[in-house]
Amino acid sequence: MHGTALVLGGGGPVGGAWMTGVLAGLTEAGVDLDRADVIIGTSAGAIFGARLACGEPPGELYERQLSRADKVELRVTAAQTVRFLWAALGSRDPRRSVRRLGRAALGARTGPESELLDAVGTLLHGARDWPGRALRITAVDAVTGSLETFDADAKATLLEAVAASCAVPLVAPPVTVAGRRWIDGGSRTTTNVHLAAGHRHVLAVSPIPTAVGPHPGAHQQAAQLAAQGTEITLVTPDRAARRAMGRDMTADARRPAAARAGHAQGTALAHTVHAAWRTDS
């Protein structure tokens, strides 16, 4: 085991705002996120992980949430929610569950892929090329249900990879990359902490730690890594953050409060992060 990994999970616009607050709070309190040997991002975590890897400071990510920049128009209807839950919860078998979700996504009437690509491109501030820092972006094959990662060696642009990771089933269209269709990287498990296996030190930020359906959550995966000898810090929303975030992860008006709650939490937790990440080590 060697090296450090920063794992950023999915959580929609509100969960993403909370996550930027956590990252900024940790950084200001002496946690050096640049020490991460790899960033692993899922959905909202793919967006902010890519921006971090491209050199945007955590403080800037946070300030843009406070000012309600980076607005995401993500409207989820009650019918879409019901269909999502029906597909995800229709089987107790994890493989069947995610394949059901993939089939539902492929058959849904959503907007064109180009709209999702344009929206993600705006959030990436026009970045198209993979950064020099090691970055892994998760996505799920809509046909097979397999979880895979894109990186600089993949046959995908940075924009395609991040868009695929953000393709929420039944809300956004699956994204076509290298002849395959892809849905949200959090379709199986929201944070994919397990992908950091083999790293000695892991910092994972999970806006929504519990998976929908018969899949392991972030706490279970973190416990498995810890049992293998990994020093892991898992940050999930505390009570104050959950209250600030509310239940609708698409509610744009809640982003500033969620970000501030994340900042307070990150600041308070910085001393618990392993010395491998701290500037005072």
List the helices and strands and how they pair.
Blueprint: E1 4-8, H1 12-28, E2 38-41, H2 44-53, H3 58-66, H4 78-88, H5 94-107, H6 113-123, E3 135-141, E4 147-150, H7 158-165, E5 175-177, E6 180-184, E7 201-205, H8 218-227, E8 231-235, H9 239-245, H10 255-269
What is the number of helical segments per DSSP (H or I, 4+ residues)?
Answer: 10
> Span from first to last CA?
20 Å
Order of helices and strands: EHEHHHHHEEHEEEHEHH
Major β-sheet annotation: 8 strands, mixed
Stretches where pLDDT is under 50 for at least 5 consecutive residues are none
- Give the fraction of residues assigned to helices: 25-40%
- The value of Rg in angstroms is 17 Å
Q: Would you report the number of β strands?
A: 8
Strand-residue proportion: 5-15%
Class of secondary structure makeup: alpha/beta
Would you tell me the overall average pLDDT? 94
Shape: globular
